[in-house]
Design a protein that fits this description.
α1 crosses α6. This protein has six helices and six strands. By secondary structure, it is an alpha/beta fold. Strands 1, 2, 3, 4, 5 and 6 form a six-stranded parallel beta sheet that branches. It has one domain: Flavodoxin domain (Rossmann fold). Bound molecules: flavin mononucleotide. Flavin mononucleotide (FMN) binds next to α1.
Length: 186
């Protein structure tokens, strides 16, 4: 069977982001089973309806990257019990019709399988994962049931600024990788 294309979307641009480290591990774990890419959306403008059309170049570009993907995997920090604004911005852009007022043509994310992982405090990113799952359904994506998986950032990560995944973290992610590959193969 052909390998699926999985596009990772990381909800932090921070240098040494813990969630980027987690996403790197996910990509590494997936790489024998799937083609993995990261969505580059650093230069995406803020969605503001007066400048939504004609569609900015950067938006056309991210829509094309998403169109090519069989599935999306969001890896996000938790900000105040929810998702960071930059993640909401990219998902808002992707949720909009490519032509003004076109309610007939499905958006690039309609029906797209998706899951979420989070590296966070003691919540294991429970709230960001729940809120993202609600958002995914609202914008007609196809979230894997169960609100994804989260890891608790160890004290050492806060102290050193570097996330070293423990065996327990890896086990959590390995299980999610297996479940997601199964979910998207159906
Ligand atoms: C605005 C803001 C709100 C935050 N709220 C939460 C929170 O609700 N839960 C949590 O676990 N961490 C929270 N944090 C801490 C983040 O988990 C921490 O900054 C983490 O390093 C961000 O992920 P990153 O390393 O991938 O950038 C918050 C951080 C910021 C900047």
């Amino acid at each position: 069977m052909d390998k699926k294309n999985i596009l990772l979307i990381v909800g932090s641009f921070r240098k040494n982001s813990f969630n980027q480290s987690l996403a790197d591990y996910i990509a590494e774990t997936l790489k024998n089973e799937a083609n993995v890419e990261f969505l580059d959306y650093k230069n995406l403008p803020l969605l503001e309806q007066d400048t939504e059309y004609p569609t900015p170049e950067q938006v056309i570009d991210i829509r094309n990257q998403v169109r090519k993907a069989d599935a999306l995997w969001v890896v996000s920090p938790e900000y105040n019990g929810s998702y960071p604004a930059l993640l909401k911005n990219v998902l808002d852009w992707l949720s909009r019709p490519e032509k003004p007022f076109d309610r007939e043509t499905p958006t690039v994310i309609a029906g797209k399988p998706v899951t979420v992982s989070a590296a966070a405090g003691t919540t294991e990113g429970k709230f960001v994962r729940e809120n993202l799952s609600t958002l995914f359904s609202y914008i007609r994506m196809n979230p894997m049931p169960g609100n994804g998986a989260g890891i608790i950032l160890p004290m050492e990560a806060w102290q050193t600024g570097v996330l070293t995944l423990t065996d327990e973290h890896k086990e959590i992610i390995n299980r999610q990788v297996k479940d997601f590959l199964e979910f998207i193969s159906k």
